[in-house]
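Good morning C.,

I know you're traveling, so I'll keep this short. The sequence:
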Amino acid sequence: MGYFWIFFIIIHVSAKGRYSCGPDGKCFCYSNGEMDCSRTMLPLSYICEHIGNITKQNISTLHVENNDIRVIGAKDLERCERLSSLFLSGNNISKTSNYSFSYFEILEVLDISHNNLRVYVEDGEQIPVFPTSLTTLKLNGNFEPNMTENEAYPNLQYLNQLTELYIDGLKNTFFPKSYRSIKTLKQLELSGLNGYCNLPLVTNRTFENLIYLRELNLSSCNITRIHAGAFQKLSMLQILDLSKNMQLGFRCMRNVSFSLQFTDIQNLNYSQVYTTFGIGTQVQKRDFCFLWNTTLRELSVNSNRLRLFETNALLLLPKTLNIVHMEDNKFTFTPYLLQLGCMSNLTKLYTNRQNSAHKPSLYFQQPENIVPKFDPDVEDCPFMKEDFLRNISESIAGCTYFEPNKPIDFKKNFPKVPKQLKEVHMSDSTLHYNVTTIFIDPPNNNLEYIDLSGNILYSWTKPVGPFPKLKYLDLSRNYGIQVTPTATKNLGSVENFQLFQNFLGLILSDVEEGSHIFDSMINLKVLNLSSNIINDLAPNVFSNLSKLEMLDLSVNNIDTWTADVNNLHNLNYLNLRFNAIHNLPDYLRTKLEDNMKRHRRRFKIDLRNNTITCKCEDKDFLQWMVRYKSNMVSFRDYIFEDSTGKRISADVFIAKVKRLDKECRSYTLVIVLSSVALATFLAILIGGIVYRNRWKLRYLIRLSKLRHFGYRNITDEAENTDYLYDAFISYADENSQFVSDNLVPYLENHGAKLCVHGRDFMPGRNVIDNILHAIRNSKKTVAIISDDFVKSNWCMYEFNMARMDNIYSRDGSNCLVVVMYENIPARHMSNEMLAWIQLNTYLEYTTNNEGEQLFWQSLCEAIVN
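The tokens, ready to paste straight into the viewer:
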């Protein structure tokens, strides 16, 4: 039996593709021929000897990083000659034999970076001869900044198959002519992010001998200036990375772009060439001018504190440009926005994180915040002439040209979307708007993907569009409280709609508007409404979504499913995690089963973090859950309870559900329930006696406190004279007689100025606007809590808005006064209301003589004083 388990473990580990191997079993081997002996401190010769003895598997890749190898002897790598990749990084290697790599004939990748090799000493001790089969060589991280000898790049001309070279960048040093013989060298990495790089001045000679180069990475190389001909000899260059040279500045783009005219440039990364806290940057025409004459397809200018473009500067971006990254900048509204249509072939635009806040600690980690000096090496660009710019504008549909020194008529000119634009990414950019009607020009645009998440688009009531090809729309994390059917009428082509983390619960429960919000979105397949404070859903809210496949309603307050699902013929994934669900209706369960049979694929439901109680009234649902437990996402992580409220495991739950048919017919259960009912009745009777006299006790305590301590009004904040009202009265219409006959006369007779919705709301204004106006302009909000109050969606909306206003707008000051007009069971209250009542003092209304007198006195003190 023991051999069986050993065999099982070996098979199980092998199935994952990783198993212990190597000397003393300290290494890990993989099914793809890779052996990892990193951090094992095994001698290199010991590892290679073991590899030479392996007959069942061909080891092609060996990792021995961070093994504290100091010296590689002549025979240390003997018997590793079958390797195609060898990684020796981070070993403090300071010496190697000239014959160390003589055994290799098929080695293609050698990483010997971050050691102590004297690679860059001119006429000094040379590194060993590498195998001529190498295609990738990593020598970066071997330079010593305090080296006193003359610095030089190593002679690698014999590596006639080398395509990728990682090496440290040396100050005032150019690559020698010997590199011209390496015709296969396509990629050169000098980045200071991977090793050492210090190139304050890039001259015309620095790279002139790398004529076959296609990729050049100069990121984080402390560059402060680049000569205009620095890249002119690199005719095959396609990718250039100059990012994270924080003292380079945008003015140097003029010299960079000048030399790129003579290359095959496709991708230019010019991000973070300013310090994070530098002054704002205006992109001028002279900066972009020579780009017009390049083949550039992708441009990155992230984190440059860009604020605006000089008028007509966008006309100078090359026609070949497809992708632009302008993230983490400081853009403001100026006429350049009216010229976006000039980027005629732009397909993807990334402008996320505009106006982002940065950690102040970054200021001390970056170079001195200075304005880079610029001494131009070239004369004025010929493409900047007004006639040339005017001709560009006329050749591109939707590209507006503005005459110099003439006022711009914004009524006749408005932004145009580049015709080929497919993706717009503008998340977390502090856009703070109430969205009104926006016409997208041209109407036959090609937009397919729009991400506006993480902004403050708090209300969207008017149509935006048209979007004939839009598939993905993200409006999540926008503090949105209102979306109307009119707003979504141009979104008929959208298939994926992300609306999570908003405040749409009230509007989605509204029978009139909530039932029609998604009516126009007939092609919707994925809808995310997570974290929207949803208590219930309008019955017909999903009626038109016949193609809907995935619906996410997680992290809400839903306890009962109320939406119609008759037309949800494709629904196969339903996320109800973090709600108060204890049962799903039969019609929803039947629809999911029908969809599974129709499409021959399993439906999935996520009910984690809901409490599932094993009780008779939910027997059908519980048995359905057990029958389809494989369809329940992470079923064993669900919260299960027995009928007494005790937490039970998934296995116990399954066993109890299987016995439900019998137990639900048992007289024992009836006896237990009767005993519980009797005990509950006695508890209520005793509690009622105490409750009946509670006001007398509280009244005596109140009189005692006043007699011994007197009255003193304590407040932490000064009187705010900016409020229009002392209090806004929130109540259900069923309690209007109490409010109008008792509460309002009493408070107003004692000097309070009140706002009452039936009397003081402005006619013709949106109800939501009236509510928010009343709360924000009242010193206090008085909520008359009754059974009718908690059943009213509008009343609960007023309560929640007042609660949010209390937390976020008034620094947690006590501006919400709760009056318990009736005794309401806790199960009728929302989670938010229960939490508020548990943490804050409230007033209880009573008709008891002493209690009523105390109530009116306390309420008046809470509002007027």
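Safe travels,
E.
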